[in-house]
């Protein structure tokens, strides 16, 4: 199809979008093709077209530990325009790479996107509040210029402290940073909704100098790989049928599935700044669509 035909398809959508905003398959295809055409040939800003589709109806794109490698993140996200995906970042956007704060701002501002809290965000906030922790945090890969940048941006600090630890996605899929049931320590058996209770307690700890407790909870080993009974109990407790997480590089070429896909690890050692980065770490091991 020529650019002219693609543009006519989008013009037809523009003309009727007030009465019927949902694009047809052809119109969606036209948008996708035009978004990759040279800028001068583009007639419409691409995100306008799909903005009216509810986020929950979009396919889910999962992004594991980015660790400051913004260049690679842009490359990895190219096939997945923000308007067409519900994007979920599993935490640890900062440290190791040079663009931790840049990655946070990018993820915060991307449309249809949820960003979870990782242990490295906790460590950075801890160093921000208590300068005696700066050396420890830099030993974990913390970048001084990123801490200075965060210190100058109170709105970003507030946004970071409001990150959820757990979210439910479509199809009873739970998303969290580390492959562990350690989060359960932040809820009581009497809590009606454990996810809401845990997220509320996480926020409370971040506001009231509880970073050390949170750091311990979010830094544990990947027990879902080795302890299927604990995995089952955690899924039951959170009313989920599977869980996606990051935190521990898995070394495979695509997200690593354990126990028939009931637990899936999306940390593919993505960042070139990470000590576990290998030249073999393909982007698709960290950034990948979630199957239905
Ligand atoms: Mn981590």
Secondary structure elements and pairings:
Blueprint: H1 3-16, H2 25-35, H3 46-50, E1 60-63, H4 70-77, E2 86-89, H5 100-109, E3 113-115, H6 119-129, H7 134-139, H8 144-151, H9 154-161, E4 166-169, E5 173-176, H10 194-207, H11 211-218, H12 223-226, H13 228-237, E6 242-245, E7 256-258, E8 263-265, E9 287-289
Parallel strand pairs: 1-2, 2-3, 5-6, 6-8
Antiparallel strand pairs: 1-9, 4-5, 7-8
Helix pairs in contact: 1-2, 6-11
The structure holds manganese (II) ion.
Structure description:
With 292 residues, the chain is of the alpha/beta class. It folds into two domains: 3-50, no CATH class; 55-289, Purple Acid Phosphatase, chain A, domain 2 (4-Layer Sandwich). It contains 13 helices and nine strands. It has helices spanning 3-16, 25-35, 46-50, 70-77, 100-109, 119-129, 134-139, 144-151, 154-161, 194-207, 211-218, 223-226, 228-237; strands spanning 60-63, 86-89, 113-115, 166-169, 173-176, 242-245, 256-258, 263-265, 287-289. A five-stranded mixed beta sheet has the order 4-5-6-8-7. Helix 1 (3-16) crosses helix 2 (25-35) and helix 6 packs antiparallel against helix 11. The two termini are 31 Å apart. Mean pLDDT is 88; it is low at 35-48. It binds manganese (II) ion. Manganese (II) ion binds at residues 65, 92, 118-120, 177, 247.
């Amino acid at each position: 199809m020529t650019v002219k035909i693609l543009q006519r398809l989008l013009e037809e959508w523009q003309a009727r979008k007030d009465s019927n905003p949902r694009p047809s398959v052809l119109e969606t295809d036209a948008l996708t093709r035009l978004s990759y055409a040279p800028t001068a040939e583009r007639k419409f800003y691409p995100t306008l077209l799909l903005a009216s589709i509810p986020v929950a109806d979009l396919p889910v794109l999962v992004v594991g530990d980015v660790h400051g490698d913004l260049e690679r993140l842009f490359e990895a996200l190219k096939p997945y325009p923000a308007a067409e995906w519900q994007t979920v970042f599993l935490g640890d956007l900062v440290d190791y790479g040079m663009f931790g704060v840049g990655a946070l701002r990018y993820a915060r501002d991307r449309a249809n996107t949820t960003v979870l809290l990782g242990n490295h965000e906790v460590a950075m906030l801890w160093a921000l509040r208590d300068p005696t922790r700066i050396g420890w945090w830099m030993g974990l890969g913390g970048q001084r210029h990123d801490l200075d940048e965060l210190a100058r941006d109170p709105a970003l600090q507030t946004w970071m402290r409001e990150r959820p630890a757990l979210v439910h996605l479509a199809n009873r899929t739970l998303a969290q940073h580390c492959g562990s049931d350690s989060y359960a320590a932040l809820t009581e058996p009497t809590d009606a909704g454990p996810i809401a209770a845990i997220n509320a307690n996480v926020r409370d700890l971040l506001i009231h100098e509880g970073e050390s407790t949170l750091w311990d909870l979010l830094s544990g080993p990947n027990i879902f790989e080795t302890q299927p009974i604990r995995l089952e109990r955690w899924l039951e407790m959170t009313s989920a049928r599977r869980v996606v997480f990051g935190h521990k590089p898995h070394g495979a070429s695509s997200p690593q599935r354990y126990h028939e896909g009931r637990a899936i690890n999306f940390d593919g050692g993505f960042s070139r700044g990470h000590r576990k980065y290998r030249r073999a770490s393909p982007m698709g091991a960290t950034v990948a669509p979630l199957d239905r």
